């Protein structure tokens, strides 16, 4: 505990004090050390109460490790864009990123629900600052305020329910709650109202309007963290409360929306022109799968939800990095203008292929393990659901091909003179692919 505090605080002081010349290389290597340190710590802490403040178990450990892993990668990805800005801006940017990571880590590792809630909300502040201050286009203020107001309004019922719960039980400790599951089932309407904060964050289909905006406007590190860890805060919240707040699956119209949310975004992906908003849309579809899996709330579906969250965090973050790599060279994300770019960046085509195949859950990727677990837990629920979700998988394959084909055509003239891909970018993508490949032979690392 003390060790972790010291390492993360030293990261902030390092960033604030390092000389200008060495700022990026040293802080990235420092971030790598800090995150590896935290990863070993969390890994050894498996299913133990560590202190009064922190509680980690099989559900939060993989998410904590994912958050730590992505932290140096976000710095690595934003280097080329930020290095052109004045040095104080760079420092403030890195400190804000670090604080965002600390809030996320504390949210995943907190021992009481109320602390989880506070950290969940606190992580909004640096996110909005990063989007509105360092975003790419003029509409970033609008995107930031969408994100802020959607999340704040939706969290009002949750805090009310938590206070009510505290009144009844006189504690909100996670450890005591997981040992005493609730028997009565909640009606769908009540469940949705209480979980609204998480459903907006995930986002559930219909509440997702802030997500494509935020992704399109955010700088690359913002997109990576948003897709990689912040969306998972919502999933973690639902899974945490699932034991205590089971939903009655009997008469729930809300399920129709969620099932539509698996199929419809994949179809919308086929109509997108902007690469970044396409990836954001595909995240919506994947996250609705996670919501449905956590509502079903059997051991299999919980494992599926966790597996899908981890793999989606890595895959979509890799896809955003790839989009950014193209964007930095061509200054466009419009797919019609990117036509043929992969014939120029031959090696990049391989890097595109891997996350795209993982994103569409091609066996033997870990994503496919998650999908299989999910499908087996859906089948007893209803046959129509099963069919609709299978259709969703087919359209997923379709938009994957759409991305591949639209970037492969004959190169256009404006793409002929572009700077080559740097080693930094290869390293970035390799570090995304490595954990995904490592999970394939050891899926039990993630299953709780
Ligand atoms: C985060 O960024 C904002 C805007 O530049 C800045 O005012 C603030 O001081 C930063 N936060 C920290 C802790 O440096």
Automatic annotation (TrEMBL):
Domain NADH:ubiquinone oxidoreductase chain 4 N-terminal: 1-106
InterPro entries referenced in this protein's UniProt entry, alphabetically: NADH4_N (IPR000260), NADH_UbQ_OxRdtase (IPR003918), ND/Mrp_TM (IPR001750)
A single MF term (Gene Ontology): NADH dehydrogenase activity
Annotated Pfam families: Oxidored_q5_N (PF01059), Proton_antipo_M (PF00361)
Catalytic activity: a ubiquinone + NADH + 5 H(+)(in) = a ubiquinol + NAD(+) + 4 H(+)(out)
Keywords of the record: Electron transport, Membrane, Mitochondrion, NAD, Respiratory chain, Translocase, Transmembrane, Transmembrane helix, Transport, Ubiquinone
Superkingdom, natural source: Eukaryota
Principal subcellular localization: mitochondrion
GO biological process annotation, one example: electron transport coupled proton transport
Membrane topology designation: Multi-pass membrane protein
Protein's cellular compartments: Mitochondrion membrane
Role of this protein: Core subunit of the mitochondrial membrane respiratory chain NADH dehydrogenase (Complex I) which catalyzes electron transfer from NADH through the respiratory chain, using ubiquinone as an electron acceptor. Essential for the catalytic activity and assembly of complex I.
Protein name: NADH-ubiquinone oxidoreductase chain 4
Native source organism of the sequence: Synapturanus sp. MNHN-RA-2020.0087
